[in-house]
Write a structure and sequence with these properties.
The complex is a heterodimer. By secondary structure, chain A is mostly helical. Helices cover about 80% and strands about 0% of the residues of chain A. Chain A has one domain. In chain A, helix 10 packs across helix 11. The longest helix of chain A has 26 residues. The radius of gyration of chain A is 19 Å and the shape is globular. Chain A starts with a helix and ends with a helix. Chain B has 11 helices and 14 strands. In chain B, the strands form 3 sheets. Chain B has a 6-stranded mixed β-sheet, with helices on both faces. In chain B, strands 2-1-4-5 form a 4-stranded antiparallel β-sheet. In chain B, helix 3 crosses helix 4 and helix 4 packs across helix 5. The chains are: A mainly alpha, B alpha/beta. Chains A and B meet through helix 1 and helix 7 of A and helix 2 and helix 3 of B.
Chain lengths: ~240, ~300
């Protein structure tokens, strides 16, 4: 546990020692603002909720989360520091989880910094703050799922651009797996059980459930399993390919 | 103690390290010497737990690198090739991270970091980001990181590569200071470095162990060992005179210098006697100790099979 926290702390200081963190936070906040107030029609709807804010999170994350995840392991490989890190007396899972937690916490900080939007909606009306909290939690969990995918993709290559593209594609498949664009690939030939299972993997569907304000245990379990699955894959891939 | 037991590393059909077994005792400074791609780095990466051997294993202070990897890694300090560091961190941040990852906490972290920085003269750059430092300083940060926790075993992959002569001298002195009762393994392809710091040499090429000896004994394998070199005005006539001596097996002239090779004892006395008897005006006369580069070439020639990682 201690080793995991040590890795996490180092990773976080790394973010804030470079402009990466600040650039990302500014872009994240500007983008959420633009999506909420222009594309989402926050004022025009006349409803005191944050639906226009949360509705665009999956699409925002589709590009911003891989941007954070791509450097996790690809950068270590490129700089050779992976050899330093993995010969310290800490296990591979500790290193993987430590780095993941740092990036996830950072995304959490970005989410918290959107609080002016929440203040605005409370000033203008009286929204269901419980539902808003649930949606924030759902959004953070979804970010974690995409981050775990991105971290795994980042372990495959020393090239950050390749890591970015692979993660965007993988996240896109997970995001849309309930929609026809992905389902049409499977319906017709795959057994119904498989089709249902794939449809059940959709980030969008599970996030939509939570952002309605209902934190269902199944949705929580889903996100936790997605994160766990990709982090385990991350450890296995890293172990197999760390020397390359 | 380090015990390597039949270490092998294969990449597909390419064999980087081929059945390497050896032991290193405390107090030894072992130099891995070999051409580029000989398998030196690969061996070190296996000893430090970064790469998994295809077959075979090794024990560091009794801890198996496969079954008890964390315990083995705790006993050693490692400087990877090129001394990679997290460039965006400051020197003290980076060293504090390594100290904590090594299991130190609280005052022990500051103590270990302070001692390592003092030892490597890093006091002036404590708060500078590592990426802004010169190559010499970066290497010192890498070394500080490796010896932070005062490990029993130090594995240093090309510790002086790319440094200027003063910095090389500094790093070598540091290694000599530390030797004592530690085990130090360094890899290098610089021959004089081995003579300067090591008390044992393993020559590796094509992933196989070709020689394992002290530097002095290796140098003694040179055909130049106990040869005598004379620089004088008319080397050709001197060569024909000296070749007649019973102590001389052969005479060679290279770049105006005449070298005679021994056929038995007492060559040096015989040559000085001949110089006096013939009244040659000699500008230089020396007894050769042996040439490491020549021994190295003889041992490794024909053994390099392509480039390894």
């Amino acid at each position: 546990m201690n080793a995991t926290l040590t890795v996490m702390r180092r990773e976080l200081t790394g973010y804030f020692a470079t402009p990466v963190a600040y650039v990302f936070i500014v872009i994240f906040l500007v983008m959420t603002g633009v999506f909420t107030f222009y594309l989402g029609g926050f004022y025009e709807r006349g409803i005191a909720d944050l639906d226009p804010f949360f509705r665009f999170h999956p699409w925002l994350y589709l590009f911003l989360v891989p941007a954070i995840a791509m450097r996790l392991w690809a950068e270590e490989r490129r700089a050779g520091t992976i050899e330093l890190l993995l010969t310290l007396p800490l296990s591979l899972p500790q290193a993987v989880v430590g780095k993941f937690l740092a990036a996830w916490l950072f995304l959490g900080v970005c989410l918290v910094l959107t609080f002016p939007t929440w203040i605005t909606v409370n000033y203008l009306g009286s929204p269901d703050n419980g539902a808003i909290l649930a949606a924030y939690i759902g959004s953070w969990l979804m970010a974690g799922g995409m981050l775990a995918i991105g971290s795994c993709m980042s372990a495959l290559t020393r090239n950050q651009v390749i890591a970015f593209i692979l993660s965007v594609v993988a996240c896109f498949v997970f995001l849309l797996s309930g929609l026809p664009v992905i389902m049409d690939l499977f319906t017709g030939w795959a057994p119904q059980v498989l089709v249902d299972a794939i449809a059940g993997l959709s980030f969008l569907a599970h996030f939509a459930d939570i952002s309605r304000g209902v934190i269902d245990l199944r949705d929580l379990v889903y996100f936790v399993l997605v994160i766990a699955f990709w982090l385990v894959a991350n450890v296995i891939l890293l172990d197999a390919r760390k020397g390359e | 103690m380090i015990e390597a037991i039949s270490l092998c590393k294969r990449y597909g059909v390419f064999t980087a390290v081929d059945d390497l077994s050896f032991q290193v005792e405390p107090g030894q400074v072992l130099g891995f010497l070999g051409p580029n791609g000989a398998g030196k780095s690969t061996t070190m990466k296996m000893l430090t737990g970064f790469l998994t051997p295809t077959s075979g294993t090794a024990r560091i202070q009794g801890h198996d690198i496969l079954d008890d990897s964390l315990a083995a890694r705790r006993c050693l300090g490692y400087l990877p090739e090129g001394a990679p560091c997290y460039g965006e961190m400051s020197v003290s941040e980076f060293l504090r991270f390594v100290a904590r990852a090594r299991g130190l906490d609280g005052a022990a972290v500051s103590g270990a970091v302070g001692a390592a920085m003092e030892r490597l003269n890093l006091g002036g750059v404590v708060h500078q980001p590592i990426e802004t430092l010169s190559k010499g300083f970066k290497r010192r940060v890498g070394l500080a990181q490796a010896l932070l926790h005062d490990p029993d075993v130090l594995i240093l992959d090309e510790p002086t590569d790319g440094l200027d002569p003063n910095q090389k001298h500094e790093v070598r002195r540091l290694i000599q200071d530390m030797s004592g009762d530690k085990i130090i393994v360094i890899s290098t392809h610089i021959l004089e470095e081995v003579e300067a710091v090591c008390n044992r040499v393993m020559i590796i090429a094509g992933g196989r162990l070709l020689a394992d000896d002290t530097p002095a004994a290796l140098v003694a394998r040179s055909r130049y060992h106990n040869a005598v070199t004379v620089v004088l005005d008319n080397p050709e006539s001197a060569a024909s005179v000296l070749s007649e001596l019973p102590q001389v097996s052969r005479a060679e002239i290279r770049d105006g210098a005449l070298t005679v090779f021994p056929a038995g004892e007492g060559l040096f006395g015989a040559v000085t006697g001949a110089v006096e008897a013939n009244g040659w005006s000699v500008r230089e006369l020396r007894l050769e100790n042996g040439r490491f580069d020549e021994v190295f070439r003889t041992i490794t020639q024909g053994e390099t099979r392509g480039e390894a990682a």
